[in-house]
Design brief:
19% strand, alpha/beta, Rossmann fold, 164 residues, 6 helices, five-stranded parallel β-sheet, binds 4'-phosphopantetheine, single chain
């Protein structure tokens, strides 16, 4: 029997951007199923959106993808979560060289914790090199235009947040 190839794509997704979506699309070319997993560890601190809001936004974006995409949240260690859902691969997107050091440290730590789980880096498409959730939030908070950097539904939620 052929094994199903499952990967976990973890992150804060506060909020999901077109850069994240590009990485999910690339992952679906390699894996049968991708679980997008929102880490809730940072929730006490500075997230703009609650976990529930982030889950809703991501589910909305991928509503047409059927069973190949699952959207979930997790607390605790990522490698334990990946193990629990039967994923042997963690996907991370790389934009510029500046991402590398942080990503390298995380990948090595995760490898030390669970050597059987591999981290796979995918290069973001060049139109997305400069997008980050942090900058998107900053620009919207200062009344800048981020349409084209996030899905329409996310843009609406961002505008609501900063109007409130
Ligand atoms: O989108 P982000 O904020 O760069 O994602 C970071 C994330 C959520 C992947 C990372 O912080 C994480 O894996 N957190 C879960 C806790 C954990 O396993 N920490 C050790 C990883 S080295």
């Amino acid at each position: 029997m052929e094994r199903t190839r499952v990967a976990v794509y973890p992150g804060s997704f506060d909020p999901i951007t077109n850069g994240h979506i590009d990485i999910v699309d690339r992952s679906l070319r390699i894996f049968d199923r991708v679980t997008i997993a929102i880490s809730t560890n940072g929730d006490k601190g500075g997230s703009l959106f609650t976990t529930k809001e982030r889950l809703e936004m991501i589910r909305d974006v991928f509503s047409g993808h059927g069973a190949r995409i699952k959207v979930d949240s997790f607390s605790g260690l990522l490698v334990d979560y990946a193990d629990g859902v039967g994923a042997k691969v963690i996907i991370r997107g790389l934009r510029a060289v500046s991402d590398f050091e942080y990503e390298f440290q995380m990948a090595m730590m995760n490898r030390g914790l669970k050597p059987e789980i591999e981290t796979l880096f995918l290069m973001t498409g060049e139109s997305y090199f400069y997008i980050s959730s942090r900058l998107v939030k900053e620009v919207v908070s200062l009344q800048g235009d981020v349409s084209g950097l996030v899905p329409k539904s996310v843009l609406q939620r961002l505008l609501q947040k900063f109007k409130a």
